[in-house]
Amino acid sequence: MPYEPAEDSFLLQKAVRRFARGRVLDIGTGSGIQALTAAGKQTVRSVLAVDIDSEVISFLRSQKSSPKITIRPSDLFSQVNGTFDTIICNPPYLPQDQGVNDPALYGGKKGYELIERFFAEVGDHLVGKGVILLIFSSLTNKERVDAVIQQQLFQFRELSRQKLAFEELYCYIITPTPLRNRLTQNKVTNIHYFARGKRGLIYTGHYHKKKVAIKVPRPGSQAKGRIANETRWLRVINKDGMGSRLLFAGPGFVVYVFVEGQLLKELLKGASYSVLRRIFRSVLRQCFQLDQLGVQKEEMHRPQKHIILGKHGHVTLIDFERCYRKQNPHNVTQFVEFICRAQPILMQRGFSFTVAALRHAIRMYASERTEESFQRLLRLVR
Hints:
Largest sheet: 7 strands, mixed
Number of strands: 19
Number of helices: 13
Strand content: 25-35%
Helix content: 25-40%
Radius of gyration: 27 Å
Oligomer: single chain
């Protein structure tokens, strides 16, 4: 038998009566109350009701009472195709009780894990002006749920709440942020959260069959104008074959080709001498190009997260948001200083340079900044 309707079902049902329209998807349909409510509205064309529980599916199929409703087994979106105007979700949202296994109640160890999975996938199935109707409990960790929604480029409004004996229920209406809509209007698909930096958030997506990275400002960051600055400098350095290839940008975001590969911090743990030497020579050459262009990148003295070795051996510098024009840039100097500090690790990989010789060579380079002085320095990194 399916999960019997309770207070949460009835609270969500009120929102479904108000907002359900067009093509409707009911995730974790349970008793089917939301699917039936949606199907009863004239503004609703069709309803797809899915649930992971095969017994629920069998029961609902035997009770089906509307030609608008299609019932299908699915773990969240695993068996769902297409996009919808309204997506309804009354997920299992309670923190797991030790020794008790009831998938209709528990949303994971903390209670919000299933909601995290839902929001990682829902954007691929919601139309630009679509709405999500979600219900959850204070036991789920409201702050965490709010953060997950915002992290995935959605915005929410609380429609209602209800106090019970040991918890409080919240019913949200959720829509894509203007930024998510701008990206989808520019034909970016499969937008998913990827990583968080000091000043920005990184998402991945697909654009004209290419995997792309999307950088946006990190909420609460005091750094202003960094995304626009990175866009400006990517246009400059792309002309010299450096950086990730810029595709397009707009207010508060930049989209560039995603670089698949390993970060330098990972490579330092186990890459061979020959691989590391090739990386260092490529990075130094790019730093020299930046010096010649009068561009200061910054962060080359701690570049572990700013250098990627691609699948085909191409070395890419990333993160140009702090870049600026400078008369005498010190990109080469910064990276050589990093190599000097990493000497104990690099000696284990087979390097034989001395810190004294490298620092003398960098002083000579800083005074001349010529190809000849750069080559003398390069020969020492061995």
